[in-house]
What does this fold into?
Amino acid sequence: MAKNPNTDLIEKLDPDLNRELTNSILDARNGEKMTKLAAAGEDYIRTHIRESGFMRKILPPKPISNEELDRVVEHDRPVRFEELETNHKGAVSLPFNVTSDTEFFYGPKGQIDFHTIRTPVFTKNVNELRTYHHDIQKVVTEHQLNDIETREDAAFIDLCNLIVGTVSPTGGKSGLQQHFKAGDGTNNTSEELSGGMSKEVYVEIQKKLENFRLNNGVMLMNTKTAKEFSKYDSLAIGDTMAGKMFKEGLKGMGDAVVGGVPHVYTIKDDLVADNVIFCFTEPNYLGRFYTLQDIQLFVKREDDQIKMYASEVVGAGILNVAGVVKIDLNE
It folds into this structure.
């Protein structure tokens, strides 16, 4: 079927993208945006590991429509007002024929701002594609997806570090301590945790969010920190689990649940440093992550050039500042 060069088509990025490329590009007309890509092999050497974003595992994204957006007088950019739970005083016991005090209440709100994350525009001469045995556009596409989600992760961690603040009894945005640092055990104050990542210390870590009357939702650490679990002996985790982790490493943990809390491991040690653990409460007690336009791939041929980039429009925020704590096990 003939292609319409005037049709403005946008292809939504598929995480399992593995389709043909070269033939469709060479056959495409000048100025046409393509949605069909051709299959090619995987015969190339990868140079390093890439991974998808961890923020989406902590705050699962939700689509949002134009009708659900709000407006502000300061600018024309889309925003969303999110309603927060209203905290009331406790109930009282009254004698008969006595009324309780009148108390007015209001619903506090938080604002989610939306912004665009976009990759550079990648350009390639279509004739140069003839020399590749693997699907180079598929590789670039995968990298664009990872780069966008890495940008999400970086902004998310910056926000978390701003919220937890300094190692101080009042250093967090909640007005209480949300950043804890390990000590050497000689001065084990409320600001310190001694014993590295021992089982006893890990139980204390899981109590931190409970001090705010919140459940543990997800714990985040890098893969090198997570390997500390392999040091737990059979007395701590049982013979079966100790044997599996000795043989299989972190894969031996299965669904990565420790003490009933799901764990997320990342290779991005430039964002989540060694021996640092972030503890997050459950998503509905933490914040929101909205996708006004989820990640999309734009591909277009102009003369003998192919141009492609990926873009998204998202809004996210931590609305309950007590919902995150940071543990630094570096002594």
